[in-house]
């Protein structure tokens, strides 16, 4: 079995990490170009959950186990991405749970609205 790492995600519905690079491999008789996919995709879980469901996140991050070799290649291509730099995607660490808790102050991507976000509404008048 391949080595796995745990990656955190602060996007509500998760994110798809994509290593597919479609390459033309030839033409078919009808003129269409056949394409071959690359190394696949991995879907990270998001923090959103149905109302009343238990919170399974750590520090606001949904944790997903993915193959280490996939992560290493994706990270090499995307290390300067805003998702990585701003810690929306939290890379693997020896102890992913404590690392996620250490970054709990990072704002969730598309976090739920708070009453203080709505202008001209006093918190005591909100209903």
Please, could you describe this protein's structure?
17% of the residues lie in helices and 24% in strands. By secondary structure, it is of the alpha+beta class. The chain has one domain (4-125). The strands form 3 sheets. Strands 6-1-7 form a 3-stranded antiparallel β-sheet. Strands 2-5 form a two-stranded antiparallel ribbon. Strands 3-4 form a two-stranded antiparallel ribbon. Strand 3 and strand 4 (33-36) form a beta hairpin. The protein starts with a strand and ends in a 25-residue tail after the last helix.
What's this model, at a glance?
This protein is an alpha+beta fold and 127 residues long. Helix content is 17%, strand content 24%.
Characterize the overall form: extended
The strands making up the biggest β-sheet line up spatially as 6-1-7
What count of structural domains? 1
* Largest beta-sheet characterization: 3 strands, antiparallel
